[in-house]
């Protein structure tokens, strides 16, 4: 009996020792360091795995910015392959442990408040009634065939349907990697607009109409040939402006503005801040009609809402280095 009791005691002590040994070993093993999405390398690796982005995809993690969401910061991850890109917007918890991919809206403000605040229109070529309840801003490329189609749709329908209710602004967004003469055409368009708003729209219609005939080699001469027949345009002044690329900085600034708005296809229209890409007339008309009715009581968009910023242009009083994507 004694030996049986001794054996039981030794077994219990042995088990206790093994248990204590395991606890001691666990305590001595360093715990794995916790990862933080606020570390750029960690977030890049996580996003690559999440979206199957191998080394062919270039990724740049931007610095964090304040967020309206308590406990989170905004972080943009810029992914690109050549001229194509996508900006991924994340909310990262301040302890770095959680990531949210979400669009955040404030019910006290227009859902397109950010877009409206970035759509700088002062000094831009415009059609329609100033102060109209619906403001359209178009980002376009003079060499883009889809932009030509959009221009024809707008020319045929917009002002005939809405003679006083709509204001259209035109912005250049040349996709040079695809269209070799698009930027010089944008520079020339700005040169024309500096002289005369109506002359710009004549240029706009002419360049789209003759798009198929223009080449990088013939653009300059063809444009000056057109200008000589325009009574409200000084062709000599235009030639000097084109030769010196006097408006290139304005075109670059407009491209940057488009990139901030995440424009990655042409044509892109913003209807009171609402993004529409390569829109057919029925869809565009439906949105305009909705906005006209909505703005009767909302008064939080349109050409006179006070949502836009002044465009600071060189020589004038107060208006994703990011690559861009192919037109849709």
Break the fold down into its secondary structure elements and pairings.
Layout: H1 2-28, H2 40-51, E1 58-61, E2 65-66, E3 72-81, E4 84-93, E5 99-100, H3 113-118, E6 126-128, E7 134-140, H4 145-161, E8 166-172, H5 182-195, H6 197-209, H7 219-227, H8 235-244, H9 248-260, E9 268-271, E10 274-277, H10 281-294
Parallel strand pairs: 7-8
Antiparallel strand pairs: 1-3, 2-3, 3-4, 4-5, 6-8, 7-9, 9-10
Q: Explain this structure to me?
A:
The protein is α+β, with helices and mostly antiparallel strands. It has 10 helices and 10 strands. Strands 1, 2, 3, 4 and 5 form a 5-stranded antiparallel sheet that branches. Strands 6-8-7-9-10 form a 5-stranded mixed sheet, sandwiched between helices. The termini are far apart.
This entry's quaternary arrangement is: single chain
Order of secondary-structure elements? HHEEEEEHEEHEHHHHHEEH
> Considering DSSP H and I runs of 4 or more, what fraction of the residues is helical?
40-55%
Model regions low in confidence, pLDDT < 50 over at least 5 residues: 1-14, 307-328
Class from helix and strand fractions: alpha+beta
How would you characterize the largest beta sheet?
A: 5 strands, antiparallel
Radius of gyration: 29 Å
Terminal CA distance reads: 90 Å
Overall shape: it is globular
Total helix count? 10
User: What's the rounded overall pLDDT mean?
Assistant: 86
């Amino acid at each position: 009996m004694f030996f049986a009791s001794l054996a039981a005691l030794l077994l219990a002590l042995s088990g206790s020792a093994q248990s204590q040994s395991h606890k001691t070993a666990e305590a001595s093993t360093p715990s794995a360091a916790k990862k933080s999405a606020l570390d750029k390398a960690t977030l890049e690796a996580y996003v690559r795995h999440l979206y199957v982005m191998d080394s062919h995809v270039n990724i740049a993690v931007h610095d964090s910015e304040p967020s309206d969401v308590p406990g989170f910061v905004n972080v943009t991850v810029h992914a690109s392959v050549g001229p194509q890109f996508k900006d991924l917007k994340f909310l990262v918890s301040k302890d770095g442990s959680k990531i949210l991919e979400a669009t955040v809206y404030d019910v006290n403000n227009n859902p397109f408040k950010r877009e409206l605040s970035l759509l700088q229109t002062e000094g831009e070529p415009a059609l329609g009634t100033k102060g109209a309840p619906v403001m359209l801003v178009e980002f376009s490329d003079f060499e883009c065939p889809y932009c030509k189609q959009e221009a024809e749709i707008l020319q045929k329908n917009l002002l005939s349907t809405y003679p006083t209710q709509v204001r259209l602004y035109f912005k250049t967004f040349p996709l040079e990697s695809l269209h070799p003469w698009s930027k010089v055409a944008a520079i020339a368009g700005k040169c024309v607009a500096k002289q005369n708003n109506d002359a710009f729209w004549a240029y706009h219609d002419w360049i789209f109409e003759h798009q198929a005939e223009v080449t990088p080699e013939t653009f300059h001469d063809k444009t000056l040939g057109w200008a000589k027949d325009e009574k409200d345009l000084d062709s000599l002044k235009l030639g000097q402006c084109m030769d010196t690329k006097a408006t290139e900085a304005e075109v670059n600034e407009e491209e940057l503005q488009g990139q901030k708005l995440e424009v990655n296809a042409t044509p892109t229209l913003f209807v009171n801040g609402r993004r529409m890409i390569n829109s057919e007339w029925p869809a565009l008309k439906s949105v305009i009609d909705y906005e006209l009715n909505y703005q009767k009581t909302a008064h939080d968009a349109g050409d006179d809402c006070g949502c836009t910023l002044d465009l600071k242009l060189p020589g004038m009083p107060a208006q994703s280095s990011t690559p861009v994507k192919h037109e849709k």
